[in-house]
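Readers outside the structure-tokenisation community will struggle with the description of the input data as it stands. For illustration, here is how one protein appears when written out as sequence plus structure tokens:
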Amino acid sequence: MSTLWRISDLIDLDFFLRQAPEEMDGAGKPDTASDRDIFLGYAKAHTPPFKRRDLIRYWLDEKRAGLPKDRPLPGEIYRETMALMRILAAAAAFALGAVLAWSVLSYSGAMPINIFTCLWILVAPQLLLLGLLGISSLLSRLGVKGGFMGLYPAAALLFRRLAIRIGKAGDNVLTAETRLRFSALFNLADLRRTIYGPVFFWPFFLLAQLTGIWFNLGILAAVGLKLAITDLAFGWQSTLFVDPATIHRLLGFFSLPWSWAVASAHPALSQIEGSRMILKEGMVHLATPDLVSWWPFLIYAILCYGLIPRGLLLAWGVREQRRALLSVSFSTGQCDRLIQRLQTPRLRTAGEEMPEDPVGEKQNFSANPSSAADGPLTGPMGPAIALVPGEIDAFFTDPALKERLSSRLGLNLAGRLPLTQDTAVDSQSLRDLLSRQPLPPDDLRLVILTEAWQPPLKETVSWLAGLRQAVGPATGMIIGLVGKPGSNGRFTGPAPVDRTIWERATAGLNDPFLRIESLGGGHE
């Protein structure tokens, strides 16, 4: 059974991943020793094959345990904030419902309370909101974009903008570490759509249902108290519907949700006739048994059109939030790098420091490090399809490409596709290739071999965006940079400045499933 993640866990994971260096080699100094120790500890207590989500959760728990207890993590801030919001929303909703019902049920004895007014104020708005929610859900399932999408995304957008504004206000007074913690929390709204799908929609949905539940509890509390300590009388009046038989039929339809469960779902025809208010006749003709026959009907209406639907929506929302959390793939570029750090054996070497190779031919790590490692490599991170531009396709044989992907990225070459740099042609070729793959797109990695010394032009970035549309939003794409061919015909490593240029150019795509890696250099 997979480990159950919570939203606060995702926020903390983002915080720790943002702390981790982006570079796996070069200037970055990742804490590979600590990560590797965490992995070895996990491997001793669990039986392979390891699930990615379970392994990352173990790493997260170990990272949390290593921090001082007096420094709250963003996930804890989120939990406390949401708990406070739930308490405030419940208290406000209960008070609003109670005050509203108390005022509607104010009865001076001069004229009975109009039951239609009660339904219009206490029940009709809730039916309207449920109807809008149903329409929103239907449009979403039909794939209609740009239309009415409900109030909850709007509430989430409002929260995100408020959080960003608060974060900017604190830039001048908070420490760098504290700003990073709050930044991870405030960034959750952007992560909602790009990485975690609908996960961050559900907290606001559940908060709305909880608010609705307490609002109806407030109404029922006020109604019960009024019935207990006062003498309430209900009647009805209408200009359009003057026939009591018509009202009786309408009540029968309105009472369908509870009519199967109770004997008296609504007042009988005689009671409806006896409680009709006629202004010019006052209350002389009204009988007390008829006037008090309406309060059970009012309570049933509040229960069946207010409290119970909100309770069902709350239970459904909890279930959908759990499903959304279980569907998180943890296949972003940052997660891939973390898995690679965890699974890569640690080298222990000693020797004199050598001058830096100016062309990068011997930089980085050995292509076959397992002989001096602290443990076995647990296997490839997953299958990959190499996308090779036509002008360098001849330089990479399948065995060489397989060795390069395995040693540098821990990936298993599952196929290759020549590229033409034409967006339409390459996108169609990719779609055809992926349609023949047995694995889901989230489990595949696309490695695009790229000559780093050629600057990423606007057309290149647009071409990458076209490939992203073709493969879907959650398929990992890796731009594998290589330098110029060396004297032995093999590609050198990319210059640091070229890699920086590529990282800055692709950052504009705002694609968490796209990353830059070095594939050139390091040949024996």
Notes: Strands lie at 113-114, 234-235, 382-389, 411-419, 445-451, 476-482, 514-518. The longest helix spans residues 295-326. DSSP finds 20 helices and seven strands in the chain. Residues 88 and 211 are 9 Å apart (CA to CA).
